[in-house]
Amino acid sequence: MVTRQRTRTGLLATRAQLALARQGQALLEQKRDALLRELYQEVQVIHAARDELETAAFEAQLALDEARVRLGDEVVAAAAAGAVDEPPIEVRPASVMGVAVPAVTPRSFVRAIGDRGRAPLVSGPALEDAAERFEIELTVAIRLATIEARVRRLAREIRRTSSRVNALRFRVVPELAGEATAIGLALEQREREDHFRLKRVKAHRAARAH
Description:
two-stranded antiparallel sheet; rod-shaped
């Protein structure tokens, strides 16, 4: 830090900069605390979504195994190859305390039986049940991936904000406070010296007058 001139103007400038640094520290701490609250909420959602995904994956695999037993691997593979593609996922911009985070438009990927590109009476209930189970798994997986991406973005911003807070708290603010104190003490010392010199001048003039 550049040492300011030890004048009244330098003291005022240092105090103004110190007040600004403290204000910035307070604002960054508020931002960090808000991001931490948001992160905690998202982590709770992640735990629940992971449990839901695990259950959905287990049920989907069971349904697939049943379809393979009832219909055979070739029929199931042919049905999977002829599946109708899903529409693209819609991602919209979102912001948390000025932090850009991904947000997927909520939707279900579970389709009606007639929307899968095959005749339900031909495919059979076992195959359609397996398809529905995997669509449920896909819905949960995409929702979980979106939340995890948000958490990663929030965690990065929390680290950046905490680093800036620490820099202000432990380096910038103490240096400015020390500089302001040093300038203030120097000015006080100068005033005492000026006052002492003035008294000597007055005493000398009084002695000459007598």
